């Protein structure tokens, strides 16, 4: 599971859920930079570290010893939650997990050193583990 070693601020403010801002395409990390094949997000969503790990397991199974995998996102945003059956007030809850806010156009994973058919199939199966719609792109 991915999470930061050390953070400056333990809790972040929630932020706005404006659909216009979330639907705006990402400007950074939108091209295949390291490998030959990439998985690109088509919709916006918060991807948790558990979901990234599940997709990584699918992709490492196909890479084997010959291929290489790059994870282009890192969950650094803390999400807080108050315990069950606790009333309103008395402060903000404790951090429970970390997420990465994906916007359309962001490249999530990259693969190299595997045949194109195997890479496309693995990317499709890994995309099913994530809450965003994805597509496979090539360099």
Describe this structure in a few short sentences.
With 139 residues, the protein is α+β, with helices and mostly antiparallel strands. It contains 3 helices and 7 strands, in the order αββαββββαβ. The mean pLDDT is 92.
Description:
The protein has 139 residues and is of the alpha+beta class. Helices cover 23% and strands 27% of the residues. The protein has three helices and seven strands. The protein has a four-stranded antiparallel sheet with strand order 3-6-1-7, covered by helices on one side. Strands 2-5-4 form a three-stranded antiparallel sheet. Helix 2 (49-63) runs antiparallel to helix 3.
Shape: elongated
Count of separate DSSP helical elements: 3
Secondary-structure class: alpha+beta
Helix content, binned percent:
10-25%
Indicate the CATH topology of the domain at 32-78 and 95-138: Aldehyde Oxidoreductase, domain 3
Computed Rg: 17 Å
What is the topology, as strand order, of the major beta sheet? 3-6-1-7
CATH class descriptor name of the domain at 32-78 and 95-138: Alpha Beta
Characterize the main sheet.
Answer: 4 strands, antiparallel
Order of helices and strands: HEEHEEEEHE
**CA distance, first residue to last residue:** 28 Å
**Average pLDDT level:** 92
Number of strands: 7
Layout: helices, strands, pairs:
Blueprint: H1 19-23, E1 37-41, E2 45-48, H2 49-63, E3 68-71, E4 77-81, E5 94-102, E6 107-112, H3 116-127, E7 134-138
Antiparallel strand pairs: 1-6, 1-7, 2-5, 3-6, 4-5
């Amino acid at each position: 599971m991915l999470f930061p070693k050390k953070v400056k601020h333990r809790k972040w403010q929630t932020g706005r859920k404006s659909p216009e801002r979330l639907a705006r395409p990402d400007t950074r990390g939108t091209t295949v930079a390291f490998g030959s094949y990439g998985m690109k997000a088509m919709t916006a969503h918060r991807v948790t570290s558990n979901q990234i790990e599940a997709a990584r397991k699918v992709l490492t199974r196909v890479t084997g010893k010959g291929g290489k995998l790059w994870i282009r996102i890192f969950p650094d945003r803390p999400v807080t939650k108050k315990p069950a059956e606790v009333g309103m007030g008395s402060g903000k809850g404790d951090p429970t997990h970390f997420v990465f806010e994906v916007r359309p156009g962001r490249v999530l994973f990259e693969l190299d050193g595997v045949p194109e058919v195997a890479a496309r199939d693995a990317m499709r199966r890994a995309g099913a583990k994530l809450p965003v719609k994805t597509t496979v792109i090539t360099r």
